[in-house]
Amino acid sequence: MPYASRTIGAVIDDVNRSYFLPAIQRPYVWSSSQVIALFDSLLKGYPISSFMFWAVDDQTKVELRCYRFIENYRPDGANEPAGAEGRQITLVLDGQQRLTSLLIGLRGTFSEKAKGARHSNAAAWSAKTLFIDLLKDPDPNNIDEDDGSSLGVTYGLAFHDRRPSNSNRHHWFKMGSILDYESEERLEALIAKVKTEFHPGVSDWERGIAEDTLRRLHRVVWRDEGINFYTEHDQSADRVLDIFVRANDGGTKLSKADLLMSMITSKWSSGTAREDIGGLVDRINKGIGTPNKITRDLVLKACLVVCDYDVVYNVRNFTTEAIAEIERNWDRIGQSIENTFRLLNRHGLTGDNLGSLNAVLPLVYYIYHTPGFDFRGSTEFERVNASAMHYWLLNSLLVSAFVGHSDQTITTARATVRDHLRVARDFPAQKLFDAMAKGGRLSQVDERTIEELLEMQYGKPRTFVALSLLYQGVDWGGASWHVDHIIPQADAQKNVLRGRNLPEHRIQEIVAASNSLGNLQLLRGDENIEKGAIPFRSWITGRRVDFYAQHMIPERQDLCDVTSLPEFVREREKLIRGRILELLGRMPA
Predict the structure, then answer these.
(1) Distance CA 312, CA 448 (A)
(2) What does the pLDDT look like over 24-73, one tens digit per residue?
(3) Crossing angle of helices 32-43 and 96-107, rounded to 10°
(4) What is the pTM (predicted TM-score) of this model?
(5) Which residue pairs, CB below 8 angstroms and at least 24 apart, start in 176-180?
(6) What is residue 380's three-state secondary structure?
(7) Is the dihedral of CA 218, 220, 225, 229 positive or negative?
C-alpha cells in the first residue's frame, strides 16, 4: 500500500475543509494530558503512528454523512454534521483522536472543570488554550523530580484559560501562533520579536533554549512531514468498514452492528435509531417473559427483509432511501419482530434452543405483511397459521436449512411468501418446503433424517426442537415445557445400577440409553415437577388413557424398569419413526 506524507500545518489547514469524519467514528475521548503528551512526542521527534484516509467520490458522498472534527472540546459536545456539497471530501478512518488533538492544540481549546466544582455548574468550566513555556529546558537530565510527568513530558506544555504572565522564569507562547509563521523569513521575524519581549532577568542560556524550542516547533509544524498516511480510493463502503474495524482493533472492539448503527443513526431523522433498535433488542431479550438472544444484527437484517431490499447484510444496502423507509415503518417492523418471538416463546422456543436466528426472518416477513394479526390464537385463522409457522420452523431448524448460503435461502423464502400473499393470506409452509428444496437441498425432515434425529442427546438445544416436532397438535398454551427423562435419570446412575448387581457391560448400555432421544419426552413444567424421580412404572399408572399414544411410549409393563432401558428405547424409537412418517403423510411400515 503506497503511503504519503504531509506536514502538520498543511493537514491542519485542511481539517474541516476537506478532511472530515465518517459517521462510524466514535466520540473524542482524549484527556488534556494526552494532548500535551502528543505534542511533547512531536517536539522530541518521536513518530505518532500512521493515519488512514478514505477519498470519497461524488456518488459516494450522496450516501454518506460526514462530521466536523471538534475544534473546541467540551465534555457535552459532539461532532457536528458537515455539508459535503461542492468540495472534495477525505474521511479519516484511523487517527481521529490524534488529529483532533492536534487541531485542539493548534487551533482550538480544551474545556476543563475547576477542581472540586460540580459538573452541573456551567461556571465551573473554562475553555483553555495550549501554551508552551519557551524557557523550560526539555532535557530530561535537567528535570526536577517534582516537575516530572507520568507520561514523560519534558517540554513546558500546559493548558491555560488565559495567557499566563511572563517572568524571569517563564515565557509563554501560544502554540497555535506558529500557524502564522510558515516561511523561514517569518520564523526569523518571530524569534526576533519574542527576544524583545523577554524579562530582563532571562539569561543568555535561557534565550538559547527559547530560540531552539521555537525553531523545533516550527520544524515540527511546517517542515517535517510528520503525518504519514494511506489513502483508500475504493468506493466500496463494506471494504472500508472492514478496514476500519481492523485499523481500530487496538481500542474498544467494534462489531459490524456498532458501525452500521452509527451510519444509520446519522441518517435517522429523529436521531434515535440506536435507542429504538437497542430498546427493541433489550425488550425481546429480557422483557416479554421468556429469555431470548436476538441481536442488533438480526433486527437490522429483518429491516432489509421486510422492506424488500437486498438481504445481504452490508453497508451499501442501507441506502438513504432504505433507511428512510425503515424509519417510516419502524413501529410495524418492531412489532412484527416482537410478535414473532412471542409466538416462538409460546411454543417453548427460546434463546437457549433456537439455533438459527436467520430461520426466523421468513416468519417476521409473513407477520409484517399480514397486518391486524398477532397470532396469539384468538381466532381460528391465527391458531392454524401459528401452528403452520411453528411446524415449518421446526423442520428448517432440524435440517439446518439456513446454514450456508443463508442469504440466498432467505431471499428464496421471502419471494415465496411474497408471491403467495398476492393470492392468499395463510402461511405457505408447503410452498416454502418445495421452493427451498430446489437444487437438491434438504428443506424438511424426511426418512433420510430420522436416524439422525434419534441420535440426539439430552442437554443439546436441537433435542427440544426435535421433540417439539413430534408433539404436533399439542396445545402449547404458553406454558413452560421441560425435556424429561421417561425412565428417571436418577435410576440410571452407575452406583444405583451396581447396587442391583448388574454386570458392567449392561450398566454401560443402560447409562448410554438414558440420555438418548428414545428416553426423552416433553412435559409441562408442573407435570415434570410432580413426576420428579418417581419410578416410571409407579408414575405412569395415574396418567390419562391417551398419554401412551401422545408421548409414543410402548404399552409394555416389562419395559418400564431401568434394567430394561435399552430395550425400552429401541421400542420407543419404532414409535417415533412411525410418528415422523405420519407427519410426512406416509404410512409406517
Answers:
(1) 31
(2) 777 889 999 999 999 999 999 999 989 999 899 988 887 777 889 999 99
(3) 90
(4) 0.69
(5) 176/105, 176/106, 176/107, 176/129, 176/130, 178/9, 178/106, 178/214, 178/217, 178/218, 178/221, 178/222, 179/9, 179/12, 179/13, 179/106, 179/107, 179/221
(6) helix
(7) negative
